[in-house]
Design brief:
Length: 398
C-alpha cells in the first residue's frame, strides 16, 4: 500500500492511499493526543483513494495512520504526528508501532442468568475497535453454541432461545467477550454461568465463582446496577393489589401480573408501579423484568430508563430495534453513528443518505459523495461536555 498524510490548509488533514485490489476496506485512524485522548476511525471503500478531515483544531497534535484489510492480513502505514497548521509538515513518529496498544480494552464482564436466558453486560475502554465478539460455549462438551459480533456502541446483549436455541436451564456455559480491530484481538474476559427458572438462579449458580454473575432483582425499590460494588439489599415483601380489579399482583416469569384480570405492571424504581397498557412508548427490549422507554429531552431518541440502551425507529417499520438487531448496522459517516437503511438497490445512512457498500465479512464501508469529513462538531461537543469519548470514537454524553 502506498499512502500519504498531509496538511493542505489550516485545520485540515488529508489522507491519500493506493491499495491493492484485494483490499476489502481502508480505515483512517486518528488519535487526538493530550490528557484525555480521543480516537476516530472511519472505514471507507478502497476505491475512494483520498479523504480529508477538516475544521480540526490547528493547535492540537494528532497521530494519524492508514490501515488496509485484505482477508486475514491487515497492513498499517507508519504513524505520523500531525499538527493541522499550514506549513507544518506531518512527521513520522518513530516510537509508535502498529495498533495493538490502541485496541479498546474490556474492563468488566457480568452475566445475569434467567429462565433459558443470559443477559451479558460489559464495560469497554477507549481505543480503536471494529466490534465486540461474544461467544457461548457448553462446559460439558466444549461445543461452541453461539458466536456473534456487535457494534462497539452495544454494551449488553440478551442471549435467549431465539439467538441460541440450544440454551438450556441447569447447564453450565462459558460466556466470553473480546474486542476486535481488523485481524487483531484484545484480551478475552470470560464468566461461567448456569441459566435457571425464576427463583432458582442463586441456588443453581452457588458453586460457581460469583464475581462475574449478577442476579435478577424482583422488587419495587431502586433499580439494580450490574456493575454496583455491593449486592442490593432485599426489600420487605409487599402485598400489591391491581388498580383494576383489586386482585393480588405477583411476579410470574419475571413479569408483574395481576392474578385476576391479567393486567401487567412495571416497577418505576421509586416504590410503586405503572400500568403497562398506559405507557406512551411501551417497554424496552433489553431488560427482564422489562423497563419503561423514555424520550430524551429535545430528541426523538427513545432509551431504556434503566440500561440507557437506545431503541431505534426505522423508516417504514413499526416498533423499535436495538443496535445489535439492525439489518445493516451503523453508518461510517456520522458521529454518533446512525442506522444504515436500504433505499432501492443501495444501502445508505438514514440521516445523511451517504452511500455504503458491503465489505466481505466486515460490515459496510463508506463510499462518500464528497471526500470531506467535518470534525468541528466533534471538538465542539467534546469541549461543551455534550459528547463523550467512547470505545468507537464519539458518543452522546448522558
Amino acid at each position: 500500500m502506498q499512502s500519504s498524510i498531509s496538511v493542505p490548509k489550516d485545520g485540515a488533514i488529508r489522507f491519500e492511499w493506493s491499495a491493492a485490489e484485494a483490499a476489502e476496506s481502508v480505515s483512517l485512524l486518528l488519535i487526538r493526543t493530550g490528557a484525555v485522548p480521543g480516537f476516530l476511525r472511519m472505514r471507507l471503500g478502497r476505491e475512494v483513494g483520498a479523504y480529508q478531515v477538516e475544521r480540526l483544531s490547528r493547535h492540537q497534535r494528532y497521530l494519524c495512520a492508514i490501515a488496509t484489510l485484505a482477508g486475514a492480513t491487515m497492513q498499517i502505514s507508519p504513524w505520523r504526528s500531525v499538527t493541522p497548521r499550514l506549513g507544518v509538515d506531518a512527521a513520522i513518529d518513530t516510537e509508535k508501532k502498529g495498533v495493538e496498544a490502541d485496541i479498546a480494552k474490556l474492563s468488566a464482564l457480568r452475566v445475569m442468568p434467567q429462565n433459558r436466558r443470559l443477559t451479558v453486560f460489559w464495560s469497554l475502554g477507549k481505543g480503536f475497535i471494529d466490534d465486540v465478539e461474544l461467544s457461548v460455549l457448553s462446559t460439558l462438551g466444549g461445543e461452541r453454541l453461539l458466536t456473534m459480533r456487535v457494534e462497539p456502541e452495544v454494551k449488553s446483549v440478551v442471549i435467549d432461545a431465539t439467538r441460541c436455541p440450544a440454551l438450556a436451564n441447569g447447564e453450565a456455559y462459558l460466556v466470553s467477550v473480546v474486542p476486535r480491530f481488523g485481524t487483531s484481538f484484545g484480551a478475552v474476559i470470560s464468566t461461567q454461568v448456569v441459566p435457571a427458572p425464576q427463583g432458582e438462579e442463586r441456588a443453581r449458580n452457588r458453586a460457581l465463582p460469583q464475581a462475574g454473575i449478577v442476579y435478577p432483582f424482583l422488587a419495587l425499590g431502586d433499580e439494580h446496577d450490574p456493575f454496583a460494588a455491593e449486592t442490593p439489599r432485599a426489600t420487605p415483601v409487599q402485598r400489591i393489589t391491581c388498580c383494576h380489579c383489586r386482585a393480588q399482583v405477583a411476579w410470574v416469569d419475571y413479569r408483574l401480573r395481576c392474578g385476576g384480570c391479567g393486567a401487567e405492571f412495571i416497577p418505576n424504581g421509586r416504590g410503586d408501579f405503572l400500568d403497562l397498557a398506559r405507557l406512551r412508548f411501551g417497554t424496552c427490549a433489553c431488560c427482564l423484568p422489562k423497563k419503561v422507554l423514555v424520550q430524551e429531552q429535545g430528541s426523538d431518541a427513545l432509551v431504556c430508563a434503566h440500561s440507557q440502551k437506545e431503541h431505534l425507529r426505522l423508516a417504514g417499520e413499526r416498533g423499535f430495534r436495538l443496535i445489535e438487531d439492525l439489518p445493516f448496522g451503523l453508518c461510517q459517516c456520522c458521529r454518533p453513528r446512525r442506522p444504515l437503511e436500504r433505499r432501492g438497490d443501495r444501502v445508505v445512512c438514514g440521516k445523511t443518505k451517504e452511500p455504503h457498500r458491503a465489505s466481505d465479512g466486515h460490515g459496510y464501508v463508506l463510499v462518500p459523495t464528497a471526500p470531506v469529513f467535518d470534525a468541528a462538531a466533534i471538538d465542539d461537543l467534546l469541549d461543551q461536555g455534550l459528547a463523550a469519548i467512547s470505545a468507537s470514537g464519539i458518543s452522546r454524553a448522558r
